[in-house]
């Protein structure tokens, strides 16, 4: 009876090893993945942080709600950019949702418009709420977050933030990114 158990365990382990090997060999080509993801519409945001007198803001689409009790959201940032360290060092960040009329601002914070990163905050009107992270006054909505967790996943860092304050701006059409270009809803 013990021998049969060992054989079945061996067969199960061999099967799992083969399944893992098959999955490893079928890794998706990154270009194909990016082409497919370009067809996934995403709201355009500017995620911001401030630390030791320095402010940073980046245009992103990878953000979503995690929970409403307690209010929690997440944002994804490129981990290869050393300037993004401010997001983990600051202990807080803000997520600013952009409207259709804020495409130029999205370009400024994405680097598409050649604006020195130290000059980005001269575009738009910025203030702070509870955490000190920059809040765009003209945002459709802005979430002020206390950093509660960080995960590194492949090339990106995922920041989880407990929302400690919210501002609601003028309700207007959203700025979205789809098919590698900005669109409106």
What are the defining features of this structure?
disordered N terminus, 7-stranded antiparallel sheet, 3-stranded antiparallel sheet, 185 residues, 12 strands, alpha+beta
Write the layout of secondary structure elements.
Elements: H1 2-25, H2 30-37, E1 42-43, E2 45-51, E3 54-60, E4 63-68, E5 71-78, H3 85-89, E6 92-97, H4 103-110, E7 126-128, E8 134-136, E9 141-153, E10 156-168, E11 175-178, E12 181-184
Antiparallel strand pairs: 1-11, 2-3, 2-6, 4-5, 5-10, 6-9, 7-8, 9-10, 11-12
What do these coordinates show?
By secondary structure, the chain is of the alpha+beta class. The protein is built from four helices and twelve strands. The strands form three sheets. The protein has a seven-stranded antiparallel β-sheet. The longest helix is centred in the first third of the chain and has 24 residues, at 2-25. The protein is globular. The chain starts with a helix and ends with a strand.
